[in-house]
């Protein structure tokens, strides 16, 4: 049936209005998400060439009297001028995070939690390309947004920088403590904060390495002899060889700011390298000792070749618990001092084999990364595991993954942009620890947070201050953590223990090269002792060579460090070990020879050998020419007194006039060449000097006289 024109028009108008209403409702429904998505896109665009917005300072723990303080740095990363803008700070005072995923997604700007409660705003100046400015927002304790928080714990915090119709946002956290709130107080969660004390400023002295070879070591009546890794560690006149490795200038005094932090935060646990303490003029207090020079036990176990380390100069006696305590006693000047020992993890994982190695050298407790922490655990657990090994039980103190990562300066994710700064990481650290406590408020746990080797004094101070202000946390020491009841069964611990070392091929290759080079250096020193020095019973001679061997071992020990130092530090120790062995072998040298001219079939060639060491040496000298016309005696031996020269003579024989080059080489008593060879040029102008020569000369004279006689007595031709 046909419809009238007014009816059709009426229906068309109704349809259009319905469509408009639908679109309007749709836009209204998606507006918050669209705006957030737009902000995120703008952030991405503005961050193409660097981060626009970052946190410089932020109140870590908010109480009823603290208020909230924030500083943010804003950088124009574009190539155009930005007009004046505004930074606003908002929070959702009533929101409670329900899971770790919920928190992580907020940090990564992947969920759009509204933040309606404004803490404050501040104007931002116009910015030229590349220009930065820092602005601050200070809210007092009676701020409406802060007062509206009625439950303790982490809250979503949003920093929004708007300029030129663009928004750059940063997702962080505000954590409210229970102070001043009418809430039920739950037991505090225990937490153990630990930092290793070691140094990456080790160096060697060229002068020291040279003097070790040239100078005699005076022995004393109180010399104490003992072996460590094949090297005698006797204290001889205060110079046992370990002084070859020292802290660089300016680092022999313990850092004052770091010492202030240790004094201020007595709960901060420190595990120190005893060789570092021994090198300091005034060592600080420590909670425990790690293996000397932070020797990498995990790499040692993965290689599974103790003899190769021995050959390189490092035996287990240099890094076991006895060695650690001995160095500590020497550091503090107390021969009876006691200290607990804890092995620090190296470049690899604590496999069963690595734990067995540590336990066999006396370490009953080790510090571990999150290797033993289950990835699928529904809640955090006490960072203690007990592992049975063939050498006995080992207590593994396992760092909590997320908290330790933040304390070590690493964001939980690259997408968590607020955590690119320390202030942002600290805010996340506090929020995360609060959430862990809220997950299981009545479950007793003790978490380990490891700062790692590179934490600065300011970082330690900031994190420790935040922990001490967090009333949901209770700090404990390492001994308490070690005694805590593990929250995993033996079967779970075994299943979580790594089965592979995890050491990369490149690190394995670097270790192989290090061992090869150090072995060659040490072999050269041993060869000098056994095949070049004369005798071996003299006490002074023994002390001198043992000092050199100990110096090489000390450098080798530091080359195997796991303290986080860069590869250059290990390479420097390896290079110094090579230099020491080269100095020793090159101290026996050949003096340059002048060209020798032969005027007969036989002659002599003098060779001078100098000895730069304080003890006599006996060596072989080998000589060979590059010509079959001129020959030299092949080999002779010579004894050279200390700091002196001696001369040997080689016989030369020539078959005819010619020239040749003699190559002269030093050899040890086993016939193995060493040092720099010398070359001597030989030329021969043969002169007759025997009976055959006189006969030839006589015949020549007779023929000459006969020729003269015939010249005077011949008949002349008539035509002449």
Automatic annotation (TrEMBL):
Keywords from the UniProt entry: Membrane, Signal, Transmembrane, Transmembrane helix
Any transmembrane segments, and where?
691-709
Question: According to the lineage, what is the superkingdom?
Answer: Bacteria
Q: Where is the composition biased (Polar residues)?
A: 495-505
Q: Which positions carry the signal peptide feature in this UniProt record?
A: 1-36
InterPro entries (UniProt xref): DUF6049
- Using the UniProt annotation, give all residue ranges assigned to the region (Disordered): 483-505
Q: In its UniProt entry, what is this protein called?
A: Secreted protein
Source species of the chain: Bifidobacterium merycicum
């Amino acid at each position: 049936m046909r419809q009238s024109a007014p009816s059709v028009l009426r229906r068309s108008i109704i349809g259009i209005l319905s469509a408009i209403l639908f679109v309007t409702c749709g836009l209204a429904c998606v507006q918050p998400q669209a705006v957030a998505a737009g902000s995120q896109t703008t952030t991405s665009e503005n961050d193409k060439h660097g981060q626009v917005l970052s946190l410089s300072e932020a109140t870590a723990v908010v109480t009823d009297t603290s208020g909230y303080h924030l500083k943010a740095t804003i950088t124009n990363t574009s190539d155009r001028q930005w007009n004046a803008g505004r930074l606003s700070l908002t929070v959702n005072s009533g929101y409670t995070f329900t899971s770790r995923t919920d928190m992580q997604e907020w940090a990564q700007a992947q969920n759009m939690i509204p933040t309606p409660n404004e803490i404050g705003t501040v104007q931002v100046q116009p910015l030229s390309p590349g220009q930065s400015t820092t602005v601050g927002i200070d809210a007092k304790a009676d701020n409406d947004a802060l007062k509206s928080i009625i439950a303790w714990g982490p809250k979503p915090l949003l920093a929004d920088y708007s300029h030129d119709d663009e928004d750059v946002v940063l997702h962080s956290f505000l954590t409210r403590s229970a102070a001043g709130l009418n809430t039920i107080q739950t037991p505090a969660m225990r937490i153990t904060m630990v930092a290793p004390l070691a140094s990456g400023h080790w160096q060697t002295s060229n002068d020291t390495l040279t003097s070790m070879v040239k100078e005699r070591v005076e022995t004393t009546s109180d010399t104490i002899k003992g072996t460590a890794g094949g090297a005698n560690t006797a204290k001889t006149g205060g110079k046992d060889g370990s002084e070859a490795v020292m802290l660089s200038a300016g680092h022999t005094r313990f850092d004052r700011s770091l010492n202030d932090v240790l004094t201020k935060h007595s709960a901060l646990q420190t595990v120190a390298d005893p060789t570092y303490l021994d090198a300091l003029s005034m060592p600080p207090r420590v909670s425990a000792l790690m293996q000397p020079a932070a020797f990498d036990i995990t790499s040692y176990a993965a290689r599974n070749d103790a003899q190769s380390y021995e050959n390189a100069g490092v035996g287990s006696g240099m890094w076991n618990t006895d060695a650690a305590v001995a160095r500590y006693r020497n550091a503090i000047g107390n021969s009876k001092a006691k200290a607990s020992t804890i092995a620090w993890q190296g470049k690899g994982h604590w496999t069963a084999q690595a734990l067995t190695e540590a336990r066999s050298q006396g370490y009953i407790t080790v510090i571990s990364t999150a290797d033993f922490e289950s990835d699928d655990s529904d809640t955090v657990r006490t960072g203690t595991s007990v592992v049975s090994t063939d050498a006995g039980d080992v207590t593994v103190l396992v760092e909590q993954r997320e908290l330790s990562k933040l304390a070590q300066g690493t964001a939980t994710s690259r997408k968590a942009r607020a955590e690119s700064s320390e202030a942002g990481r600290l805010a996340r650290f506090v929020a995360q620890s609060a959430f862990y406590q809220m997950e299981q408020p009545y479950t007793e746990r003790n978490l380990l947070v490891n700062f790692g080797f590179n934490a600065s004094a300011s970082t330690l101070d900031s994190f420790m201050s935040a922990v001490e202000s967090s009333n949901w946390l209770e700090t404990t020491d390492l001994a308490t953590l070690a005694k805590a009841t593990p929250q995993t069964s033996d079967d779970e611990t075994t299943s979580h223990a790594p089965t592979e070392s995890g050491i990369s091929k490149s690190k394995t290759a670097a270790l192989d090269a290090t061992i090869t080079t150090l072995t060659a250096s040490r072999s050269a020193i041993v060869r000098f002792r056994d095949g070049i020095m004369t005798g071996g019973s003299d006490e002074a001679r023994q002390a001198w060579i043992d000092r050199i061997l100990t110096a090489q071992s000390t450098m080798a020990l530091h080359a195997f460090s796991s303290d986080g130092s860069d590869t250059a530090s290990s390479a420097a120790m390896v290079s110094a070990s090579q230099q020491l062995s080269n100095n020793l072998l090159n101290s026996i040298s050949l003096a340059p020879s002048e060209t020798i001219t032969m005027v007969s079939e036989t002659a002599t060639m003098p060779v001078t050998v100098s000895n730069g060491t304080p003890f006599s040496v006996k060596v072989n000298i080998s000589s060979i020419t590059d010509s079959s016309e001129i020959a030299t005696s092949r080999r002779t031996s010579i004894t050279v007194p200390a700091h002196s020269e001696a001369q040997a003579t080689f016989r030369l024989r020539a078959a005819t006039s010619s020239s040749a080059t003699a190559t002269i080489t030093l050899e040890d008593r086993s016939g193995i060449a060493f040092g720099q060879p010398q070359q001597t040029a030989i030329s021969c102008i043969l002169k007759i000097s025997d009976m055959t020569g006189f006969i030839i000369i006589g015949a020549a004279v007779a023929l000459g006289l006969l020729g003269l006689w015939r010249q005077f007595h011949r008949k002349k031709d008539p035509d002449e």
